Amino acid sequence: GLAMDAVTLRVGDLEQMSGYYENALALIPIEERSRGSEVHRVLGRGDVPMVRLVHTPGLPAVNPRAAGLFHTAFLFDDAASLAATVFRTARDPRSRFAGSSDHLVSEAFYFTDPEGNGIELYTDRPRETWRRVNGQLHMDTLYLDPNAYLSTHLDEVVLDAVERQSGRVGHVHLQVGDVGVASAFYIDTLGFEVTA
Question: Which of 145, 1, 14, 25 is nearest to 82 (CA)?
């Protein structure tokens, strides 16, 4: 099967954005290198790269109506790791909380980083509990109370060592101008399957 590597984000302010992902999401710098005038900094958990920041001075602001990245979704193995990361992210004053949802297959929290990039922090429910209806994955968007989730799952021991908890990029959501054209490309050209 396919697995996601680190997601590359072009950033206008490398130090601010690197500091944000280190403090808010408890990611650790893994690697840094220069390519010509560009500086690439990779951050992750353990030896798993999760985000690659590419310093790009003069970057235009994110246009919420343009095609491109909608959000990067960071997947955690269990509720305690997710809760600890959500708690850290919510406490960073540079984070903008954008909501939380129970999708039946997963529980997810949404934020926006200082340069307008979307972030999803989530954990999957066990796959054996996922339901299919007419061959398609049954999903929904139900309210998930963030305070109740944190009071249930936040563990001080995990929080104190949150940067050592495993994590990875689970998926990315893309914003497209024409769903039909984009679907045809991903299904017919790349050979992906529709799941929902």
Answer: 25
Model confidence at 20: pLDDT above 90: yes
Tokens 């984070």, residue located: 95
The answer to whether 165 and 84 have CB atoms below 8 angstroms apart is yes
pLDDT digits (tens, 9 = 90+) for 92-113: 999 999 999 999 999 999 999 9
First to last CA, the chain: 18
d(CA 129, CA 135): 15
| Amino acid letter, 195 | T
Contact criterion met (CB below 8 Å) for 51 and 44? yes
**Core vs surface per residue 65-101: b (16+ CB within 10 A) or e:** eeeebebbbbbbeebbbbbbbbbbbbebebbeeeebb
3-state secondary structure of 143: strand
Question: Rounded to 5 degrees, what are φ and ψ at 42?
Answer: -105, 130
Where does 145-193 have alpha helices with state H? 146-153, 156-160, 179-184
- Using CA atoms, how far residue 4 sits from 1, 25, 72, 163, in Å, is 10, 18, 11, 20
* CA 150 and chain centroid, separation: 18
Indicate the DSSP class of residue 61.
P
In total, the chain counts a number of residues equal to 196
